[in-house]
Amino acid sequence: MTDRVLVAYTSKTAATDEIAEIIGTELAGCGLRVTVLPVAAAESLHGFGAVILGDAAARDAHRFVKRHRVYLKHTPIWLFHRGTPPVPNDVTRMVRRLGASGPISFGGEAPDWDRAQAWARYLADQLAVLHRGFVSN
Predict the structure, then answer these.
(1) CATH for the stretch 4-131
(2) 44-88 pLDDT per residue, tens
């Protein structure tokens, strides 16, 4: 299994891409090879051992999941949501369909940056447990 992680995001506001960058930076700091991309730019998931997707409520995220559903069924996936709880019903259904973890919410207009960093470190530990090829500090 590869130690490559894709952090794919869609954002109508700057906060979701900033959260994705924070998550990517933290994962890289834990020894993972990370690619952070808008979902529209993620043409292939080949070579990625895990996917982290945010903002899962957006239409582009649903297109991403539909386009890559076969690959995602066999790949660990975590979802994050920039908004405040409760999580939208369509995201809850996406979690069930994919067997995904999450979604975790990072607040509305003032996202919780510290929580995003802590969650990324948690993900690095989870990936280390799931895949012997992953390395975590």
Answers:
(1) 3.40.50.360
(2) 999 999 999 988 777 888 899 999 988 998 899 999 887 777 777
Rounded to whole angstroms, the Cα distance separating 72 from 13 reads: 26
Other beta carbons less than 10 A from residue 88's beta carbon: 15
DSSP E strand boundaries for 11-82: 33-38, 50-54, 77-81
Ranges of H-type helices in 30-84: 59-67, 69-72
Q: How many CB atoms lie within 10 A of CB 85?
A: 9
Cα gap 102→31, rounded to integer Å = 23
Mean pLDDT of 90-105: 83
Give the mean model confidence (pLDDT) for residues 29-51: 93
Residues paired with residue 35 on neighbouring β-strands, in sequence order: 6
